[in-house]
Design goal:
The structure holds 2 protein chains of 2 kinds. Chain A is mostly beta strands. Chain A is built from no helices and 11 strands. In chain A, strands 2, 4, 5, 6, 9, 10 and 11 form a 7-stranded mixed sheet that branches. A 4-stranded antiparallel sheet of chain A has the order 1-3-8-7, with no helix packed on it. Chain A is globular. Chain A starts with a strand and ends with a strand. The mean pLDDT of chain A is 93. Chain B is built from no helices and 11 strands. By secondary structure, chain B is mainly β. In chain B, strands 2, 4, 5, 9, 10 and 11 form a 6-stranded mixed sheet that branches. Classes of the chains: A mainly beta, B mainly beta. Chains A and B meet through β4, β5 and β10 of A and β5, β9 and β10 of B.
Chain lengths: 113, 111
């Protein structure tokens, strides 16, 4: 049981490039989330999904897109990378929307130059 | 809207007790979480409160007062490995199922 896995661990992008951050969970969780964390700041929600085929915007969705074709996978797409997207990206999942905690992946560190 | 406040930094010594406070303002409170995050790592779950009162889990306890919009995390018998950021997060019904996080409190434990 690997939990939540993310790839890559670290990436450097040039301004205007595109990339996809991968997130996979093997806990059969319905709920999945993408957060970004800037230095000295809390986590901010980018997008979330309550099940396959259903996604919704969070607090900071601009510049990102997501899809949820399977229960296991929730990729995050950056179409035109900008320096403001330099951050650490965490994917998380939970079984329900209630009191159960969210389980976080190890994070992807992205640097846009 | 939502707002979560917690101190930026705290320091303490090994063996001591430290209390990290969190105040929040939400329109549809539906639970409060505390996470621990070591530098360069992912957040890990510590505690969950949805009703008023104290939840105890080993060396860590968390308290909630919904009427005051206030919670605290109490860490006893501090150890060096407790040096980390502690994140207060609130689930707001109007924000769906996701959590709204505070900026975190960086705790430094010295010998």
């Amino acid at each position: 049981n690997a939990g939540v896995t993310q790839t890559p661990k670290f990436r450097i992008l040039k301004i205007g490039q595109s990339m996809t951050l991968q997130c996979t969970q093997d806990m059969n969780h319905n709920y999945m989330y993408w957060y970004r964390q800037d230095p000295g700041m809390g986590l901010k929600l980018i997008y979330y999904s309550v099940g396959a085929g259903i996604t919704d915007k969070g607090e900071v969705p601009n510049g990102y897109n997501v899809s949820r074709s399977t229960t296991e996978d929730f990729p995050l797409r950056l179409e035109l990378a900008a320096p403001s997207q330099t951050s650490v990206y965490f994917c998380a999942s939970s079984h329900t929307a209630g009191g159960e905690t969210q389980y976080f992946g190890p994070g992807t560190r992205l640097l846009v130059l | 809207g939502q707002n979560i406040d917690q101190p930026t930094e705290m320091t303490a010594t090994e063996g001591a007790i430290v209390q990290i406070n969190c105040t929040y303002q939400t329109s549809g409170f539906n639970g409060l979480f505390w996470y621990q995050q070591h530098a360069g790592e992912a957040p890990t779950f510590l505690s969950y409160n949805v009703l008023d009162g104290l939840e105890e889990k080993g060396r860590f306890s968390s308290f909630l007062s919904r009427s005051k919009g206030y919670s605290y995390l109490l860490l006893k018998e501090l150890q060096m490995k407790d040096s980390a950021s502690y994140l207060c997060a609130v689930r707001d019904q109007q924000a769906g199922t996701a959590l709204i996080f505070g900026k975190g409190t960086t705790l430094s434990v010295s010998s």
